[in-house]
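User: Show me a protein chain along with its predicted structure.
Assistant: Here is one chain, sequence first, then structure tokens.
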Amino acid sequence: MKAIKVIGAYFAAVLVTFVLGSIFATQFIMGNLQDMGMTVTFSDRFSATLHDIEGLSGIYLPLIAISFIISLPVAAGVIKFVPNLRLVGYITAGAVGLVALHLVMKAVLGLTGIAATRTVMGLLSQGLAGAIGGYLFYWLTGMLGKDTSG
């Protein structure tokens, strides 16, 4: 039963990271459009965000899943030796996993999969999305020992 809950926490963390990463990426691009003098309404931002979440789900969601299937178990391995760093470990794993994903794609494939990551702030925003996903994994897996359902 514990394994199923850990897997559920993993999928929740991946999904939240994907949605936040998509939102951050879209808003960076919309901000760039405004910087170029274009008028961008709230409706434009909302519509573009929904479009990007849908459009990126086929490629970015699986890439995040792969990133987390590597980074979270690595963090778990380190945490076995320093359990008092569990929170820091999972937050760091999420952030590093997402930043590494973009840096590896650029280095190996020569491409920038998410346009916002061409800037340091855009790359850091993806790291923030990963950190939040890592925190969610930390929180949900921490709840495993506190199950009061029976």
